[in-house]
């Protein structure tokens, strides 16, 4: 629609509005990046990395923030693109080399925008599909998501560095002094408010699944709490093809270390049992607290003579990509790290890891190995 006589088109595609949206989007990206690094390092720890056992809900918080901010970034990114997209096709692409500094600055700006748009859209779309556990691709999501996160942040830093003078001027109200015609469409503040409101709604609609008080509002969350023993299930026994082996009366848990011990299920139940209340928090953002009963991991480590400071490797009947996890020494010694035999007062459901599974504080659900058949001392 064109503006009539004496009327102006809405002045919404302004540097000031783009700067405010970019700031909100940048904050969301920064939180996603930091919390995503933590999640990746917990699952694939570098030698220097340390992750505490307290508070027990720490991973529940960081991964909940990761998913909530990632989902919130989607409407912010789309609105930001809607505001600035004419500039993406502006000519000249770089400018005249007679002014090399200006041309270099413009070239870096255009290149960073191209990389940022592609990388960010990849991160947001694949992250959203990961929440739904739908993988219409052949690459390994975790590796691709981690690598592209560095590309995204690098592009953000280059873009902000190039545009910093414009951003600073916009916040000083020097780069744009126009005000939108109140009769010609929504104003800048209305558009910014709508974008922030959409981001907040998206965060609650999906990310609310990790926070008890908001769980009922998480109407777009794929797993809000339903499942056997009042706990969601990501990977069922049928999907893992472990039903027959896990339910076999001949089951034995093999413990290997300085000594080797084999325990039947009845022998595991005869060991001192402890009950703890811990959350199960998955990388997709959902989490639920539950009551777990079983044998302390520290007691099993002592049973095979594991030295102080040793980590333990848990091996599942499931031979899938997450059938093995390593529990760091700090978590091995934690009093609430259990080889769980019961969940919420009853024997583990087969889909929750019967006959035994790992549960430890402040760990991703993907590392809380189900259907454990062997525990090895890592030397």
Automatic annotation (TrEMBL):
Organism superkingdom: Bacteria
Domain Oxidoreductase molybdopterin-binding: from-to ranges:
250-378
Q: Does the keyword Nucleotide-binding apply?
A: no
Which keywords does this Swiss-Prot/TrEMBL entry list? Membrane, Transmembrane, Transmembrane helix
Q: Which Pfam families has this protein been placed in?
A: Oxidored_molyb
Membrane-spanning segments: 21-43, 63-83, 113-135, 147-169, 190-208
Q: Does the keyword Nucleotide-binding apply?
A: no
User: SUPFAM superfamilies under this entry?
Assistant: Oxidoreductase molybdopterin-binding domain, Transmembrane di-heme cytochromes
Q: What is this protein called?
A: Molybdopterin-dependent oxidoreductase
């Amino acid at each position: 629609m064109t503006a009539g006589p004496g009327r102006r088109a809405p002045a919404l595609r302004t540097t000031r509005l783009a700067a405010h949206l970019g700031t909100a989007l940048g904050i969301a990206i920064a939180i996603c990046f930091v919390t995503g690094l933590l999640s990746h390092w917990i699952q694939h720890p570098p030698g220097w990395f340390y992750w505490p056992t307290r508070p027990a809900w720490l991973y529940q918080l960081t991964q909940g923030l990761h998913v909530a901010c990632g989902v919130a970034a989607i409407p912010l990114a789309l609105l930001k693109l809607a505001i600035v997209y004419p500039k993406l096709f502006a000519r000249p692409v770089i400018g005249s080399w007679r002014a090399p500094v200006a041309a270099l600055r413009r070239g870096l700006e255009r290149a960073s925008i191209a990389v940022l748009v592609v990388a960010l859209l990849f991160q947001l779309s694949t992250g959203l599909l990961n929440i739904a556990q739908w993988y219409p691709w052949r690459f390994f999501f975790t590796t691709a998501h981690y690598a592209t996160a560095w590309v995204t942040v690098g592009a953000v830093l280059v873009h902000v560095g190039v545009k910093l003078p414009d951003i600073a001027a916009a916040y000083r109200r020097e780069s744009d002094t126009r005000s939108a015609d109140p009769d010609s469409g929504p104003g800048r503040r209305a558009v910014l408010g709508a974008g922030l409101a959409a981001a907040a709604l998206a965060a609650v609609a999906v990310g609310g699944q990790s926070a008890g008080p908001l769980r009922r509002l998480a109407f777009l969350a794929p797993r809000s709490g339903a499942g056997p023993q009042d706990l969601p299930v990501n990977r069922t026994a049928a999907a893992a093809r472990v039903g027959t082996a896990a339910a076999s009366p001949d089951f034995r848990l093999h413990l290997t270390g300085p000594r080797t011990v084999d325990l039947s299920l009845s022998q595991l139940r005869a060991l001192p049992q402890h009950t703890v209340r811990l959350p199960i928090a998955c990388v997709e953002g959902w989490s639920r607290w539950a009551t777990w009963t079983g044998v302390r991991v520290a007691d099993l480590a002592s049973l095979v003579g594991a030295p102080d400071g040793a980590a333990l490797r848990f091996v599942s009947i499931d031979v899938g990509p997450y059938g093995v996890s390593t529990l760091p020494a700090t978590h091995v010694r934690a009093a609430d790290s259990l080889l769980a035999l019961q969940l919420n007062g009853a024997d583990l459901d087969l889909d929750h890891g019967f006959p035994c599974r790992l549960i430890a504080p402040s760990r991703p659900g993907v590392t809380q190995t189900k259907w454990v058949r062997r525990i090895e001392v890592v030397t």
